[in-house]
Write a sequence for this structure.
């Protein structure tokens, strides 16, 4: 599903060079629920940005679903994100001017393969699932961090993307809500065979992952199957 | 851009206007409205003044087409034949001659120099609305002799003392009174004042009118001569058409349209008007453009992060650009509507309370074409002003936009 070869990302700020990713090679299979773990600053977010087509690597290759993404122009990348990918940002990244419902519906509204009735239903379903239906007309700033996080998850999965990227989606949630989110991820992973790549640094999350990658200083230091969840 | 993209762009535009700073949106709309009004008010006022002057000149001086003596001649001669020729032309409602002589009016102790205009009352009625402007008594009959109609300022007012008069008069002549006209050529005659009129056009109001029949007694030249002939055109025929046809069919006199004459006498003033109009148009466009440019630029800068997010979740940059475009369109349309309302209110006010002077009365003269044209110009300027920053910001890459 995703083939990553010798991926490098170097940030240059004046004379200082930060190797945020330093030669990452990795294959992610379709339907896999992959956990990326590692200390703060180890390059997790950077890697997810590259995979989510939000930033360009300095060197290396990413092939998603048979497409070498370096061959895509801006418009194609946007459409790729719209039709194939879902992304949960570490800082939620909700659109401040839009209500909860509008935030969640927006990506679905743009899809040519969905009718208005379909995306409305999809939105209602997902809001119900994350327990935010009663808040659907609120603006993001009227919600708590955890609630915003859940809305951002809803927005990422409303289009049932082939691949879901989630950058510390439980960072602002209590254990109960974290479990709810992880159970939701497990559910869509099992029911719809969606590939999920999730960044986390909570140790107990690994119970949910099929496979765990550890990053340190932009390098993969371990790559292991989680026996309990392996399929 | 498909329908779905436009719908999303419109939703984003609407929400940004609703949830962003209300006061800046309202201020922007007000400014556009003011610019619109500013663009259209002065030209409309000048046009109104121009129209009112033109109407008076047409009504009381020269009609639509003026036939005057050819160079070197003092009079339009062979009057009967010339009038018959003109009156027979298609597009001519009626032609009527004027013959004026300077004279001194005497009434009791007062003396007043005036121009005595001889007219053919029945034909004059078809050309000039003077007969509808009688404030006392009645209009001249076709072959009246010894009867005169005089302007209200000439008649004067008994209650105003001579030294307090704004314009010298006969000091309060009333219908039925007798006044003496001394033509200065030895012909002196008493006339009965048959009527008093007031037109608001000062050169008509400070004259007196007698019939051609009467004038022929005072000056035999009036029998078959005129100072000029004024021609009224039929509706649907242009002045130019009638002028050309008169020349073509053998009117050997000088033939000019009102427009020709006004261009000559008011050419300078019209040029200045045109310059002022152009300046107010350009200023309106510049202010609107600059304001919208600044408003949208600030909006886009403040929402760079939001733009980054939208791109990240799969919203195309064109949709984002149009979302700002729609905001401009909405503000421009509301601003122009506000300007239209403001302009029409002022037009209604000025129509009810025109600025009246002896020479003209000013109302706003606005044609639907002026309103449409100005709306479109302002709208186009707004679009340009809004799309430039929208285009620029929508092109930014996701990473730098999101970090903003
Ligand atoms: N835009 C950037 N400019 C410069 N350095 C950056 C930028 N983004 C991330 N970094 C650096 O790259 C490294 C990896 O960052 P990040 O991927 O955010 O780590 P993590 O998500 O694992 O905490 C860090 O040292 C961070 O400071
Ligand atoms: Mg991170």
């Amino acid at each position: 599903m995703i083939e990553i070869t010798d991926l490098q990302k170097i940030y240059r700020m004046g004379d200082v060079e930060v190797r945020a990713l330093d030669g990452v090679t990795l294959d992610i299979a379709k339907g896999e629920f992959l956990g990326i773990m590692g200390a703060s600053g180890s390059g997790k977010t950077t890697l997810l940005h590259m995979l989510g087509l939000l930033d360009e690597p300095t060197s290396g290759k990413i092939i998603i679903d048979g497409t070498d993404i370096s061959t895509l122009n801006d418009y194609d990348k946007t459409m790729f994100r719209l039709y194939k990918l879902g992304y949960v940002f570490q800082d939620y990244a909700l659109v401040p001017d839009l209500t909860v419902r509008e935030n969640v519906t927006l990506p679905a509204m743009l899809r040519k393969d969905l009718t208005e009735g379909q995306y409305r239903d999809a939105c209602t379903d997902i809001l119900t699932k994350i327990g935010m239906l009663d808040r659907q007309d609120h603006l993001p700033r009227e919600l708590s961090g955890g609630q915003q996080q859940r809305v951002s998850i809803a927005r990422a999965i409303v289009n049932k993307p082939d691949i879901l990227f989630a950058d510390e989606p439980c960072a602002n949630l209590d254990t109960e809500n974290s479990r709810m989110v992880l159970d939701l991820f497990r559910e869509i992973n099992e029911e719809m065979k969606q590939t999920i790549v999730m960044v986390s640094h909570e140790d107990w999350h690994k119970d949910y992952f099929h496979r765990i990658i550890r990053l340190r200083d932009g390098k993969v230091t371990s790559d292991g199957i989680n026996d309990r969840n392996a399929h | 851009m498909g329908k779905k993209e436009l719908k999303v762009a419109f939703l984003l535009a609407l929400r940004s206007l609703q949830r962003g700073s209300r006061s800046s949106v309202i201020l922007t709309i007000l400014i556009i409205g003011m610019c619109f009004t500013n663009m259209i008010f002065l030209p409309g006022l000048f046009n109104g003044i121009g129209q009112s002057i033109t109407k008076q000149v047409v009504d009381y001086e020269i009609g639509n087409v003026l036939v005057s003596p050819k160079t070197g001649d003092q009079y339009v001669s062979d009057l009967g034949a010339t009038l018959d020729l003109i009156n027979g032309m298609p597009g001519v409602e009626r032609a009527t001659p004027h013959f004026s002589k300077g004279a001194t009016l005497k009434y009791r102790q007062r003396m007043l120099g005036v121009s005595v205009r001889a007219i053919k009352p029945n034909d004059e009625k078809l050309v000039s609305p003077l007969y509808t402007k009688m404030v006392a008594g009645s209009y001249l009959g076709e072959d009246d002799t010894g009867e005169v109609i005089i302007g209200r300022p000439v008649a004067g007012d008994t209650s105003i003392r001579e030294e307090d008069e704004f314009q010298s008069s006969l000091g309060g002549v009333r219908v039925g009174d007798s006044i003496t006209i001394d033509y200065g050529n030895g012909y002196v005659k008493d006339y009965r004042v048959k009527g008093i009129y007031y037109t608001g056009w000062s050169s008509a109001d400070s004259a007196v009118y007698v019939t051609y029949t009467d004038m022929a007694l005072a000056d035999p030249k009036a029998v078959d001569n005129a100072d000029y002939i004024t021609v009224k055109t039929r509706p649907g025929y242009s002045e130019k058409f009638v002028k050309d046809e008169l020349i073509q069919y053998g009117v050997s006199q000088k033939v000019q349209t009102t427009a020709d004459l006004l261009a000559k006498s008011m050419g300078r003033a019209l040029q200045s008007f045109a310059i002022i109009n152009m300046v107010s148009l350009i200023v309106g466009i510049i202010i609107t453009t600059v304001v919208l440019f600044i408003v949208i630029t600030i909006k886009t800068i403040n929402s760079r992060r939001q733009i980054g997010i939208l791109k990240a979740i799969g919203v195309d940059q064109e949709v984002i650009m149009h979302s700002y475009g729609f905001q401009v369109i909405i503000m421009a349309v509301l601003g122009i509507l506000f300007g239209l309302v403001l302009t029409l209110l002022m037009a209604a006010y000025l129509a009810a309370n025109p600025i009246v002077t002896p020479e003209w009365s000013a109302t706003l003269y606005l044609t639907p074409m002026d309103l449409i044209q100005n709306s479109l110009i302002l709208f186009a300027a707004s679009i340009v002003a809004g799309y430039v920053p929208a285009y620029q910001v929508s092109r930014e890459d996701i990473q730098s936009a999101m970090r903003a």
Observations:
- The mean pLDDT of chain B is 89.
- Chain B touches chain A at residues 2, 4-5, 7-8, 11-12, 15-16, 18-20, 306, 309-317, 319, 398-399, 402 (CB under 8 Å).
- The pocket of adenosine-5'-diphosphate (ligand 1) is lined by residues A 11, 13, 18, 20, 38, 40-46 (CB under 6 Å).
- DSSP finds 13 helices and twelve strands in chain B.
